[in-house]
Amino acid sequence: MKPLRTQYVSCVGAYVATGEELFLAEIEDLARDAIDEGKRLEEMADLHEAALLALVENGAACNAETIRRASACHAAFMVSSTVFHQARVDLIHYDSSRAYGERARQRLETLGQLIGGMAHEVSNLLQPVVGLCELSLLDMPDGAPERENLEIVSGCAARASGVLRNLLAYGRYAEPEMKLTAFGAAVRRSLAFVTSVSMLWPALTVSIEDERSRVVMVEEELTQILLNLMQNAQQANAKRIDISVMRTPWRFWVDGADGVDAPAPPIQPALRLAVADNGDGMDGDTLIRASIPFFSGKPPGEGSGMGLAVVGGIVKSFCGQLTIISQPGEGTTVSIYLPIDQVDCAAETV
Amino acid sequence: MNADAPIVETAVRIVRREDILTARKTVRAAARALGLATVDEARIVTIMSELAKNACIHAGAGEARVGVRSLPDRDQILVEVEDAGPGIPDVSAALSVGFSTNGGHGLGLPAVNRLAKSLIIDTRPGKTVVAALFESARA
Asked: Is the ipTM, as predicted for this complex, more than 0.90?
């Protein structure tokens, strides 16, 4: 291809001689191509001088029409190159601002997920603080010297929960909704997630007898239950964990209705999730304290002591019950009983 | 616009590349008749050139109209190109830099938008009219 200068000089000569629009259109295309090829505007500054000198050399008439046509060529080149140069600059700004916006968006998204996850965790940890403070206050006689302190603890924990709830709501990490869920299938999904978190789990067997029966629950919290129980087993040196879901009749005792005169609640259909390990197990004393928050049988740094307390809190919020069977050297079995949805039960009896 | 000022209108049917040149010549002649500066003449011709090319590329053909109006303090040239193509699906995207549906540079409409005083796009499948108003203050 001929150099830009040669082509421009030739087009100007042709337009001055003929006045044909075609040559002006070609000059505009030349300018666009030059910008496309990355030529700088100042590199084109002397093009027109070359074209005018060529006109003189070729004996063009020195009159108003020649000047006017030569100027039309120059204007066509300048307008075209300026417009396309500006479009290129805009495009570069557009691309870089879009890339910057995308990076910023990704960082914010990651930060949001991190904050959402933390707020959720801390919120769960605060539940037993609030709950146990209230229980202790109920048992505490009026005027007890510790009462005032405990009320402050309770109030602060409740306020902290409120702050976290607002934060979660703002970030659309709203409190997970209780939903009627097919429990066996949900256990499978949660286990798929939990087992992907670590490569170091003990050998795991899973037996799900009932896939379809539904219970009212929050699936994310089921995941938390399984994660906590499996971590407990792992830290108790278990070599294997057996997880099972089966259907069983169960009597759901209501808190506070365990007095001698209280009528026994009816037996109703339930699902039992059992997490059994062959780890160190616990003696009776440890077992009793196991569901108390911050109690831990593990060496310092290995556990927060919150595992079973958190599990207990979640199970309670699902209207379920928790039992633990354990003996030193014999491992531990944690069973969670959840009532099967009555609508499901009714549908089955029809 | 001032209703008293007469509008002189010329229309050019655009089918082939030569017709784009005719449309350019028409608007150039109008600019010269008004005594516009050479650089303004180049600007309005660039507007016409881009709109006429768009009609050829996207609709295969079109019609270019040039309207001229002289007001006491300024001159106005209206370049209007109409085609029967598929229409512009997303006008704001078409006006943004770097957008192109035909694999070209995609500089056409943004360039026109930059050069014109105002740009009106009326588009739907089967009929698209792009009108660019160019204005030049009288010396």
From this structure: no
